[in-house]
Structure formats: C-alpha cells, structure tokens
UniProtKB/TrEMBL annotation:
InterPro entries: Cupin_2, QDO-like, RmlC-like_jellyroll, RmlC_Cupin_sf. This is Cupin type-2 domain-containing protein. Residues 53-117 form the Cupin type-2 domain. Gene3D superfamilies: Jelly Rolls (2.60.120.10).
C-alpha cells in the first residue's frame, strides 16, 4: 500500500477506499458526529459512516423510500422504534437491519458509537446536505434543530419525516 493511501481523496483513488482509524469526512449532523467512511462520491454503491451520539440523542420517526439502513452498535446503548409499535434494545455488538419503506427511529440511552450502513448510499447525501463540515472530530455544540429545514431536506432525499418517536 502506498504510504499516503489513507490520505488520498475519493477523487484521486475511486477504486480503493482506505481510511486510517478516525479518518474520513467528518460532518456535524444534528447532535451527531458522522464520519463518512464510504459513499457514492467515492465510487461505493453503499454508504458507511461511523456515528458518535450523545446520551438522549433521538431521531424523528421516519421512513427511507430508497435506502435500506443498518446499525452496528460499537459502544453504548439505544432503543430502536419500529412501525407496528415494536421496540428493539441494542447494545455493543448488536446489529439491526431496516429495509427501505419501514418506519423507524431511535433514542440513545448512553453515549453511542455505531456504524451505519445504507444501501444505496443516498442517505449520506442527506447528511451532507443538512449537516456542516465538522471543524473538529468531536460532537457538535448543543443546538435545537431547524425542523422545517430538516423536513424539507429529508424530502429532497427520499426520506419521509413522520413525527416524533412513538
């Protein structure tokens, strides 16, 4: 491997994606630090990100029209809420796959670090569009989300916001 392979941008090496630990495109998205490891911009057919979230972080209840979404919890614990009133507890080592079209959301019970896989890679374009480039590899400052902008951005990326968690 080339000595600087982990530092190459996606445009320079679209066939191979290599990131050193902690490396990748860092985005502040809501109260998350999202570190993109692979995406369509890099030539991947899927999206993979490492997400760090504070305790009490939650998503709205939502549905992806195109992307399947999978979660692999590395650290911490969370509750995933699925349509039909089902709730799934997920801690370190847990894997949850949610097919496109299935309404879901989650709330963290503690700080969480997890891998998020989306197929195809469209969800990460939503993260980029709504989020901002992280100036530091840490959680963003606490701030209330711009809900109308979140809903409009989600809609442009094939994500339907259904409301608060059940």
């Amino acid at each position: 491997m080339h000595a600087n392979a982990e530092r190459r941008s996606c445009a320079e090496a679209p066939e191979v994606i290599v990131h050193a630990p902690g490396a990748g495109e860092a985005i502040w998205f809501l109260d998350n630090l999202v570190t993109v490891k692979a995406s369509a911009r890099c030539g991947a057919r899927f999206g993979l990100a490492e997400n760090s979230l504070p305790s009490g972080s939650e998503t709205p209840f939502h549905r992806h029209r195109e992307d399947d979404e999978s979660f692999y919890v590395l650290e911490g614990g969370m509750t995933l809420f699925l349509e039909g009133g089902r709730a799934v507890e997920a801690g370190p080592g847990a894997f949850v796959h949610i097919p496109h079209g299935v309404a879901h959301g989650f709330r963290t019970r503690s700080p969480v670090r997890m891998l998020v896989l989306c197929d195809p890679a469209g969800f990460l374009e939503f993260v980029r569009d709504f989020g901002v480039a992280a100036p530091r590899a840490e959680l963003p400052p606490a701030a209330a989300p711009d809900v109308p902008r979140l809903v409009a951005t989600a809609e442009r990326h094939g994500i339907e916001i259904l409301g608060p968690l059940p």
